[in-house]
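## Example pair
The file below holds two records. Each record gives the amino-acid sequence first, followed by its C-alpha cell line.
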Amino acid sequence: MSHHPHMIIGWKEVVSLPDLKLELCAKIDTGARTSALHATQIEFFEREGRPWVRFLTAHEQLVNTTAISCEAPLYGHREVKSSNGEQQIRPVIKTHLEMGEFRESIHLTLVDRSSMKYPMLLGRRAMERHIWVAPGAAYLLGQP
C-alpha cells in the first residue's frame, strides 16, 4: 500500500518491478483499465505443480536495454481490448510495482509491445485511490 494516498505522477515515469529485476520507463494511461508489460517468447511451464510463465522483455526505452529473461507465477488469463480495438486473451502475472514512494502489488498482462514507444503501460486499476496524474508533466519522480 502506498505511504502517500494521493501521489502525483507525470504521464511517463520510471518504475521498478523488483520481483522481475526490472527498471523501465512506463507510460501512464488512465484510459486503459489494465496494465501491460512488453513480453516476447512467452512460454508456459510448471514449477512445483503450479503454472508459471517465462518471457523475454527488451525495448529501446528500457533503462537497461539488453534482453532480459523473466519468470513469474501465472496468475491467469484476461480478455483485454487492445489499442486497435481488438479483443485479445493475454497471460496475467501478479508482481510488485515501485514508483517513488508508491509500493503496490499489481496485475500485469503480457503482450508484445514492440510497436509501442514504452515497454510498460500502467493502467488505472493499478493506480486507483492512490495516484493522481498530471498529464502535462513527465518524470516527476526522477529522470531515467
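Second record, same layout:
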Amino acid sequence: MAELPVPIKDLRLLDVKLGQLPTWLASLNYTPRAFLESCKRGHNRFYAKYWEPKRCGIAGPAMLITAYVVFSYYVVYDHLKEERWRKYH
C-alpha cells in the first residue's frame, strides 16, 4: 500500500530535500509565539531524551557541564589573553 504524501509544511528539517528547502522555509510561521513554541518543543525533546530520571545517564549532565565550561571560557577569554602576554612585557 502506498503511503500518502505528507504536506511540505508538516515535514521536519531533516526530512526536507535540498530542492524543497526554500518552499519549506516559506511555509514556516515566523511569529514570536511560534518561535517560543518551537523552543519549548526542543527543550521537551532534550529533557525527555537526556534528563528523564528513569533513563538518565551521563550524557545530559555532561552536555550541560561542557556548555558551561565553553561559555565561561568565552566570557573570560579577553582577560586570559592579556594575562598570557603580560609575562613577556
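Notes on the second record: The chain has three helices and no strands. The chain has a mean pLDDT of 82.
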